[in-house]
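Researcher: Go.
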Amino acid sequence: MFRSRFYRAAFLSLLVAGIGLSAATPQLTLSLVRDLGAPLPVAGLYYVTNLAAPVAGYLVGRWSDRSPDRLLWFRICSVVGAAGWLVMASAHAVWVPFVVSAVALSIAGGSMAQLFAAVRDELSRRPTKAENRVIATIRMAFTAGWILGPVFGSWFGGVFGLRALLVATASCVFLQMLPLGRQRVERYDVPQDDHHERRHGLDHMMPLLIFTAVCVLAMTGDTIKFGYLPIYMAEQLHVSDSVRGLVIGIQPLLELMLLPVVARFADRFGPIRAMTVGAVLGLSGNVAYALSTSVAGLFLGQALTAGLWACVGALGVSIAQSLYPEGVGTASGVYLSAIPLGSAIGGTIGSIGVAAIGLPHVFFIPASLTALAIVAFIILGNRTARA
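Model: Structure:
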């Protein structure tokens, strides 16, 4: 894989982007409260702006599918994202970050989607039996960035301030273009003979939309975990700060280790089947959270949830592209927008669920939703195999 100049550049680009985004994301609500004086409930609503991501992802994907150079929209999204982070860094009114997130950062999220669309174009042009491993390896860079970024962000924000941290994130979002230089990736059009009829419209997109909706069901527990697991550990289990950090930080590390394993499993047994196994692991992880009365149970839940997110990261975008092969830019944008959408929905479910049934039993709700996702994956896999 690393013999390809483009794949090497894509790997480095996602590493830089992952570090920048993960450095700022955990600090955003703190920045709203400390620098802009937002009340905590108002700051918590910031993530509702993720509901705009699917619209932006779809539009950017459609425009990308009409552009001869797939990387054009990757670069446009990167510039828009860098500008958005700079505006947030200089904001003095509470409403500014909300507008910037809903508009500029939603568009910026399309950069990774279009980079993966370019990867798919290259794989279609030069097929390989290890395509799942290629995508998983490139995705590993973003996961590695999310391991390094929060550590860097905590240090940088503490030393230089949160506004300076947002400027650093803007720099990373802009610099993700640097590894690619002036490379072009020509859009790959599905040959007429390979895809008997070039169909368009909502009906033909239904498998993609259904798959994306099912993935949203499986992802909802992640926001609940990040929002409420630290509270559960601090207030009910009374564990130290270092142990809490270890519990939260172990998942992306395990996910990074599992990405190549998941890719090999998918190459052998099929990506939909691997995704189903991932959803079973996610269900088990949520049950482990809900039933845990000690840190050991939470570590188990994190290990199981890492399996789900390894499948989401390594296989999800590839499956989405295969379900809508004549519009891989649209497919990538729609699927990857499911992650922030799942975050917004999960945050809402978590708020209602904690008030209704408390911690840790709130995790039975995402467990139930993941169970529905497992059934849907099985049905989708059977129909795809027959097709």
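Model: DSSP finds 16 helices and no strands in the chain.
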